[in-house]
Design a protein that fits this description.
Number of strands of chain A: 18
CATH architecture of chain B: Alpha-Beta Barrel
Helix content of chain A: 25-40%
Oligomer: heterodimer
Number of domains of chain A: 2
Shape of chain B: globular
Shape of chain A: globular
Strand content of chain B: 15-25%
Distance between the termini of chain A: 55 Å
Largest sheet of chain A: 7 strands, mixed
Number of strands of chain B: 7
Largest interface: A-B, 51 and 41 residues
CATH superfamily of chain B: Aconitase, domain 4
Radius of gyration of chain B: 15 Å
Bound molecules: iron/sulfur cluster
Strand order of the largest sheet of chain A: 13-12-18-17-14-15-16
Number of domains of chain B: 1
Radius of gyration of chain A: 21 Å
CATH topology of chain B: Aconitase, domain 4
CATH architecture of the largest domain in chain A: 2-Layer Sandwich
CATH topology of the largest domain in chain A: Aconitase, domain 3
CATH class of chain B: Alpha Beta
Strand order of the largest sheet of chain B: 4-3-2-1-5-6-7
CATH class of the largest domain in chain A: Alpha Beta
Amino acid sequence: MPQNNSQTIAQKILAAHCGRDYVSEGEIVNAGLDIVLGNDITMPLAIQEFKKIGAEKVFDSERVVIVPDHFTPNKDIKSAQQSQLVREFASAFHIKNYFEVGKMGIEHALLPEQGLVGAGDLIIGADSHTCTYGALGAASTGVGSTDLAVAMATGKLWFRVPSSIKFVYEGKPQPWITGKDLILHTIGMIGVDGALYQSMEFRGPVIGQLSMDSRFTMSNMAIEAGGKFGIIEADKVTEQYLSQRAQRPYRVYKSDADASYDQVYRIDCSKIGLQVATPHLPSNAKPAEKLSHIGIDQVVIGSCTNGRMEDLAVSASILKGQKVKEGLRVIVIPATQEIYLEAMQKGYLKTFVEAGCVVSTPTCGPCLGGHMGILAEGEKALSTTNRNFVGRMGHPKSEVYLCGPAVAAASAVTGHIAIPQEVMDDY
Amino acid sequence: MIIKEKVIKYGHNVDTDVIIPARYLNTTDEKELASHCFEDLDQAFAEKLKKAKIVVAGTNFGCGSSREHAPLAIKASGVRLVVASSFARIFFRNAINIGLPLVQSSEASQETEEGDVLEVDLSGGSIKNVTRDKVYSISPLPDFIQGVIQSGGYIPYIKGQMKK
Ligand code: SF4
């Protein structure tokens, strides 16, 4: 232990989960888990490995969460077979938090909404965007199917204690800026491996003002910079959210003031305009207004990054009374049933349909080129999702541009990449 | 263990979507996954595999999704080893867990070209580029990870631990 035994929030949460007061960066610890998550793609492999371990039960039937969301409602026979396998496993092992179609939503929107994850938790999921729950002040990260199998059997997993990078967001953000613009800008600044193996900590006055939905968007994309965690310390906004939802007691950890960081970045948000990441890396962040020459074939508003209430509210406020550009396809996917219902009650779904969008049941769908909006050769999509790799949304010669809800909705009206000011008289 | 094979070379940020596109994730069959490995990145991969069995790449290899189908597809295709300047962390865990050997070396990665022959001594900690007559040392993996590799993957390792 160094003389100065100050720790970051990541160190504190890992220490608490292996029964210690202090863990040092770089050491490998075996830590107990609060929640273990699998989906319809990663579970089938995990079930195979789980059987090889020979475990007779899961470590805790209330703490294993299974969400079939990627290819559901099932897109073809093979994915139906996979879902069947997962459903049978859930039933055989009495998994309390198994979410069938009808209750299902996109996992990283669903778990916080259902109060299954909270501040101070240590969480793994066999899905890379498991880092989303960092927005609640949790240490939460993605792993693969073998890790998931071991975690389901033992309730524990090995972790290398990461070093941390601090991002301090200051200044007054411009109109229409949401968490997506801040995180695209950040990834653009440090690159897709800028936080490899590290814990990203998002702080500062702008984060304090940010809604929970925008915070989820930011933590969600930590993995797009290679990050292990993307943590926002719990504050009043978090506690307000958790007080209405958390099913278990939570614990607020804070980084010590003199904890050590590999880097500290200060970001002046008054200088960040609406962002778009051009193909084929999330780090290709550019100001949206410089891309108005890019015509698009499809717009997707949804995913674990931007399929929440705030995203639908922003989109609806721009699309109200407008029409989708002739020849453009616009697909809106509320991330969960609860969001779907609320968007219906608030009239947003009506706004979307009247404008000429389609509204889908919750699913990952087009985000990973699964179904519900696959691109043909040469097509361009503008999407509120998180990845724009080659072939991500369909044909290897198609292209994906990433943005937040405001740019997506404005561009739905113009048919090219646009900012809201272009389509609204009074904003 | 010594692996001596020809090299297939790729660039930086080879992501899991090009290693195995999501449209094939409706199966866990290793042979089927292997038959689509790298197809969106390099249509000649299957042809190249007949002569070369080491993949060398730049930084952040395996970035993107947590799909274990990616290292599985690479391993089942017959690739024996991946050398890269750096690996994305979930891919690194997954490869170790399923027993696909990985070696990290930016020097070796930068100075190796497609078609070179590499001789890699996984236990001795060195990479030799036979074609260019150069040797690079590799830093040893943490004891715990070596234990996992020696057991043949994470599942056999855990089974061993549970018996203790
Ligand atoms: S919405 Fe996209 S990124 Fe999110 S979990 Fe689904 S496939 Fe993954």
